[in-house]
Amino acid sequence: MEKIILKDIPDLDKIDVYISNGGYSGLKKCLDGMTPDQVIEEVKKSGLRGRGGAAFPTGMKWGFMPKGNEKTKYLCCNGDESEPGSFKDREIFERNPHQFIEGALIAAYAMGVAAIYVYIRGEYWKWVNIVERCVAEAYEKGFIGKNIMGSSFSTEMFVHKGAGAYICGEESSLMNSLEGKRAYPRIKPPFPAAVGVWGNPTTINNIETLANVPEIINKGGEWYSKIGEPKQPGTLLFGVSGHVNKPGVYELPSGTPLMTIINDYCGGVRGGKDIKMIIPGGSSMPPLTKEESLTMKMDAESLKAVGSAIGTAGIIVMDEDTDIVDVLRRITKFYYHESCGQCTPCREGCGWMLKVLQRIMDGYGRQNDLDLLISVAENIEGNTICALGDAAAWPVKWTVRKFRKEFEAKIRPDVQVPVMNKVHGLRNSDEYMRVKNETNPLVESLQGKVQENANDPETERFSS
Amino acid sequence: MNNTYIPQFTEEEMKTVNLHISKYPKPMAAVMPLLWMIQEKYGWISLEAMKYVGDILNLPHDHVLGVATFYTMYFKKPYGKNHLQVCTNVSCMLRGGYEIFNHISGKLGIKNKEVTGDGLFSIEEVECLGSCATAPMLQLNNKEFYENLTIDNVDQLIDSLKNSK
């Protein structure tokens, strides 16, 4: 299978090597003989879908940008890649950075963009340096800047280094971060194509998406649309981690069976063990059980059919000895840490889910905790500005549903724990009975409050 | 690492500052690169430094404070000379990230975000650094990655850092 992005050519990050292997010919083809509309048509024909998680058709996204030059237009390349289990963009930065730069320039030409900002997460210090060097090389060759390759098209390209915030991978918070603000997601609409960074029309594309574009222009959209699954054509960069013998990034056609990836490319599960759970697209995606994994094909539509999603194609494999509860606790801790704090359901909900999961881990789990977890998750899902809320809720909701036995095994039915919570826990707890029998003005007032709350219909509703 | 300092860019550094400002249509956007410059120079970002950056960009001081405290990679307090950032997220956890963290923590006698008495080492538990295939891993001072860690090569790393002073 021919690789589109991670080609087996040494030193491809050097511009001369890249050019001698046909690099920047796609950009030249566009500037010489294609109108911007023809470029967008070609990308639409290819069926390329975004690789950042939502799998949105790229050509359609580009088509949303207003025509004409009344307002300065921007393109942001999203290299914030912070989803646990996802490490594919890093591989592009290291092994073929010029291809994504060329793709970004073609996109800029298609949309008439005046400046491209490459947003790379701050932790990728090494790869930020590589991309900065490559951008400088491309400037030197005249591929970026004024009158590119002697045409009338001009655009600039800048690298912006993040500083450690998962939320910046969300497109609207990326724009806020670029503007020099706290990375709070924005309410949509207006969509970025209308009001984006600095109030101007903006498109945000994932690094992998852009890296696909030069080959689409070179070989044609029709060629691309015949690779892999017709509904999500092309190759995907599968980042496999966890309990496999050879973890790594593998470029394979979409629709490759999950077990082929694990057994043929990653050398099977470590120690010849059985699979317990697989996360198919980065930690926020609903997990797969072993039975689902056996027949699963890795593309957006197949995963959607079982209620999961392709996400960023970061596959995390867990063997039979894995403590699922602990894994979920760790995932929830991540979202609790990374919630930007703007929307209440996500900010508070993630904290509560973490507390409940920690309680189960510590052996103080209560019988109704599992339903409580699902209830909190469902109250986050869909009630936040950005998708981080959903990303935190899905793993909790689906892991508890699919692996309920694992959780129940950790909950002892006889454990009665005093929970110091004014609304529900206090009434039945031993702790409360003890302080109740002492005379103390604070206790008196607390007691009154509990009584008052108990008569409130709202308390009834929230008592679990 | 300086525990106190008076933030001041040299003339040469001011050229870089102006270069950063020229990259964006509005000067506010340069706040993140400037905070990076401060941290590169002094090791951490003090309140005075935030005010200094605010004055350069003509921004309210509290805006800079808001940005500096939002992003976890900006250090708001001085850490050790060698700041070890150990990933314990899922992929690393499955391959022993917590064991590495606990080992370093025990060996150096410090907890999360603490500094050793001699100021040489500090440790932090961090979220996924995109090194899942080479887990477990740690990052040193926001820069180099050390991957495929074992208890042995972590010990070697710490020893070599100790000797290099």
Strand numbers in spatial order across the main sheet of chain A = 6-5-11-8-9
Biggest interface: A-B, 54 and 43 residues
SSE topology string of chain B: HHHHEHHEEEH
Unreliable segments of 5+ consecutive residues of chain A: 418-422
Residue share in helices of chain B? 40-55%
Tell how many strands the DSSP assignment of chain B holds: 4
Q: What is the CATH C level class of the largest domain in chain B, in words?
A: Alpha Beta
Sheet/helix structural class of chain B: alpha+beta
Distance between the termini of chain B: 12 Å
Q: Percentage of helical residues of chain A? A: 40-55%
Tell how many strands the DSSP assignment of chain A holds: 11
Q: Give the count of helical stretches of chain A.
A: 21
Total count of helical runs of at least 4 residues of chain B: 7
What CATH calls the topology of the largest domain in chain B is Glutaredoxin
Q: Which architecture of the largest domain in chain B does the CATH hierarchy give at level 2?
A: 3-Layer(aba) Sandwich
CATH superfamily of the largest domain in chain B: Glutaredoxin
Annotate the secondary structure layout.
The complex is a heterodimer of chains A (464) and B (165).
Chain A (H helix, E strand, L loop, with lengths): L14 H6 L4 H9 L2 H11 L11 H6 L10 E6 L8 H8 L1 H15 L3 E6 L4 H16 L15 E6 L9 H8 L23 E5 H13 L1 H5 L9 E8 L5 E6 L2 E2 H8 L9 E5 L8 E2 H5 L2 E2 L1 H6 L8 E6 L4 H15 L5 H18 L7 H12 L7 H15 L1 H5 L21 H7 L4 H14 L2 H6 L2
Parallel strand pairs in A: 1-2, 1-4, 2-3, 5-11
Antiparallel strand pairs in A: 5-6, 7-10, 8-9, 8-11
Helix pairs in contact in A: 2-6, 2-9, 3-6, 5-6, 6-9, 14-15, 14-17, 15-16, 15-17, 16-17
Chain B lengths: L10 H12 L8 H12 L4 H11 L3 H10 L11 E6 L2 H5 L2 H12 L12 E6 L11 E3 L4 E2 L4 H14 L1
Parallel strand pairs in B: 1-2
Antiparallel strand pairs in B: 1-3, 3-4
